[in-house]
Give the backbone structure.
Amino acid sequence: MKIATYNVNGVNGRLPVLLRWLTETQPDVVCLQELKAPQEKFPEQAIIDAGYNAIWHGQKSWNGVAILAKSEIQELKRGLPGAPEDLHSRYIEALVNGIVIGCLYLPNGNPAPGPKFDYKLQWFERFITHAEGLLARGIPVVLTGDYNVMPTEQDVYKPERWLDDALFRPETREAFHRLVAHGWTDALRKLYPTETIYTFWDYFRNAYGRNAGLRIDHFLLSPEVEQRLLAGGVDKNVRGWEKSSDHAPVWIELADV
């Protein structure tokens, strides 16, 4: 079973890139972030024609998350619990092939400090609480998406330049490490503990050409899934396609049960 995550940075504007990637790589499940489309503007028919079912949580101009799957999708949750007044479309959860899939787009948080950074940390705390509840159920869970966190200096090109950025501030990294410490496995780091891995390259200053990237798209696996992990990687070449997102798709492969 191949599961992928991809921050598309506008699902309609990047639709040709998304469809090409789906055709070439054929993942079984895909989590998308930054749809930047209201609910009624999601390109459902194009996704169906590509061979996928879909559920999505859209929002005009900003945010938006979706789960695509070749098999049946049972939606479990839309929106992150803990703050009914938070209307941002940043989390969607479903049961696919016996695995709970949580697709998230964690807030960027810049400029920091400030209200946006406060919101990022508050959202993170709600996410940690929800993730703890999922772990306690002892079921297979994959939490994947754009976490907007570089967990360590290994995950960022020239870390000294990012010390005051919301994605790399100590409070952000501490929250991520606290989340993982409850029992989650960072899939790519388990597979490649010492390698340089990036999932995002800015559009500016030839970042992709220089490989001046960040690793901010992550897979966290519950123990029930971690033992099934076979492979994983980043489809870095997709970032070089014309009119591509500034993120590349990230994927893992799990053994069948």
